[in-house]
Amino acid sequence: MLVISPPCRGVYPQTIDPKPVDFSARSSYTHCFQFPRVVPKRECSMRLGTFVCFSKKPTQHTTFKKRHVFTQNVDLPPILPKNKKKPYPVPFKQIQEEARKDKKLAQMGIEKRLDPPKNGLLVPNLVPVAYEVIDNWKLLIKGLAQLLHVVPVFACSECAAVHVASAGHNIKECSGATSSQRRGSHLWVKGTINDVLLPVESYHMYDPFGRRIKHETRFDYERIPAIVELCVQAGVEIPEYPCRRRTQPIRMIGKRVIDRGGYVKDPNRPCSSTFSSPLADLDTLGASERYPPPEPEEIPKLAQETMDAYEKVRWGVTKLMREYTVKACGYCSEVHVGPWGHSVKLCGEFKHQWRDGKHGWQDALVDEIFPPNYVWHVRDLKGDPLSGSLKRFYGKAPALIEICIHSGARVPQCYKAMMRLDIIVPDSQEADKVA
After folding, report:
1. Where is the APO domain (predicted)?
2. Average pLDDT over residues 90-118
3. 414 domain-assigned
4. Among the three residues 12, 36, 57, which one is the final residue of a domain in this structure?
5. pLDDT at 229 over 60
6. What is the reported pLDDT for 435?
7. What rounded mean pLDDT belongs to the chain?
8. What sign has the CA pseudo-torsion 344, 359, 83, 158?
9. At what angle do helices 127-147 and 299-321 cross, to 10 degrees?
10. Helix, strand, or coil here: 124?
């Protein structure tokens, strides 16, 4: 029921929040509002109007749950062009704003406030995370090296393409130097562990806050996996890769370091180049020769453990990179773990002549230090090779996930839409009729 007394013509009443009116005689009606008398702009009288909305109270409180909507397919992020610099992970305006604040404090002579680990001290809560990443990194290399004896993997000798199947696919997407002569067809060879886990290395530094690595002194530093270097700087103790542990924080004014505790000479590292040393478990070099093929009944369990180790390594690296600084070149694939990038002139990508071969350092992403290396998903390893005319119906997955799935591991929920498992691949004759 609606009872409203209209105002006089030409009157514009003010907007006032309605006041609830208590109807004690009608307990089953809840929404009742009374509009009080207002003073119009012109002298005019207004009668009281009452708005009554009848609705019964619900018998019980109902809660609405969010429906989980699972997408059917997800496209991978586009491949960035090589003739442009990579986009900044942080908006460039935010970087400029922070630089202005640091410059203003430096002009006033105020010391910059640095929290661990930006001041050279360890973060105690992240030390167990670093040890967990190292342990799962060893399990990941061991499990993958054993699964490669069972699951066939092919790699292109001209580009970085990898395919997990009994034979290479027929999709013409090769970007190698001589791909134009083969019209985009790949040259497939037997793949190795380095084709699945792309080796991303960085210089190991005893003091990350010490002197920068010059181009002339680059051979004085050893190259190790970037994940291992990140864990070492986060608190993992490896005798072969020592790292300076500070007790006093670093002090800075702007970009100038006013106190770093002096320079310390790097200690001599003992040589241990044999495959049987504990240090060899951290590197993928020669992993297939170190580990024998697994037993047939142990393959599903091994595949699941390897997949879990992969997810734990990725989770741990993401958590460590939120606090510890990792730099990546905006033009090439070079990565440096530390507060500042090195000065080695080995960048040969877009317009490297303008930079004299120096890298264009910016904050790194997780995919740059631990690349997923996506491959085409194959539903049957022994089926027909993938066709280029049907590639829009095929999904993709990280190469390691693809190997573990074909070895008996469960498909993770986060990769199902990416692999397009719910899409039926039509025949080549039916592909043109699909909307």
Report:
1. 155-240, 328-413
2. 91
3. no
4. 57
5. yes
6. 55
7. 82
8. positive
9. 140
10. helix
Say how far apart CA 364 and CA 367 lie, in whole Å. Answer: 8
* Residue 210 counted as domain residue: yes
Burial class, 148, CB count within 10 angstroms (exposed 0-12 / middle 13-18 / buried 19+): buried
Reported as a single tens digit per residue, the pLDDT across 260-317 is: 887 887 787 665 545 456 677 888 888 888 899 999 999 999 999 999 999 999 999 9
Which segments within 188-243 are labelled E, that is strand? Answer: 188-190, 201-203, 223-225
Number of domains making up the chain: 2
Distance CA 42, CA 11 (A): 7
For helices 127-147 and 399-406, angle between their N-to-C axes, nearest 10 degrees: 60
Cα 23 → chain centroid: 59
List the domain range (segments joined by +) for residue 29. 1-57
Section 141-163 average pLDDT? 94
> Nearest-CA neighbor of 126 among 203, 229, 236?
236
* Maximal CA-CA distance, the chain: 100
What are the residues facing 225 on neighbouring strands?
201
Q: Where does 235-344 have alpha helices with state H?
A: 287-290, 299-321
For the segment 204-219, the average pLDDT, to the nearest whole number, is 92
How far, in Å, CA of 347 to CA of 355, rounded? 9
**Residue in the block written with tokens 């640091």:** 102
6 with 112, same domain: the answer is: no
Of 129, 144, 74, the residue nearest 315 (C-alpha): 129
Rounded to the nearest 10°, the torsion over CA 60, 63, 64, 65 is -140
**Cα separation, 30 vs 39, whole angstroms:** 28
Instruction: Identify the domain boundary among 371, 403, 421.
Output: 371
Q: Which residue has the higher pLDDT, 179 or 129?
A: 129
Question: Rounded distance, CA 435 to CA 432, Å?
Answer: 8
Residue 401 amino acid letter: I
Specify which residues 252 forms β-bridges with: 257
pTM of the model: 0.80
Residue 70: pLDDT above 80? no
Taking 3-state DSSP, the helix, strand and coil percentages for the chain, each rounded to the nearest 5, stand at: 25, 10, 60
Contact predicate 345/356, CB 8 Å:
yes
Q: 104 or 20: which carries more pLDDT confidence?
A: 104
Amino acid at 139: L
Instruction: For residue 380, list its beta bridge partners.
Output: none
User: What is the torsional sign of CA 93, 97, 99, 103?
Assistant: positive
Which pLDDT value is given to residue 270?
Answer: 61
CB atoms within 10 A of CB 109: 8
Asked if 35 and 102 sit in the same domain, the reply is no
Quick check: is 337 in a domain?
yes
Q: What is the dihedral of CA 325, 327, 333, 334, to 10 degrees?
A: -100
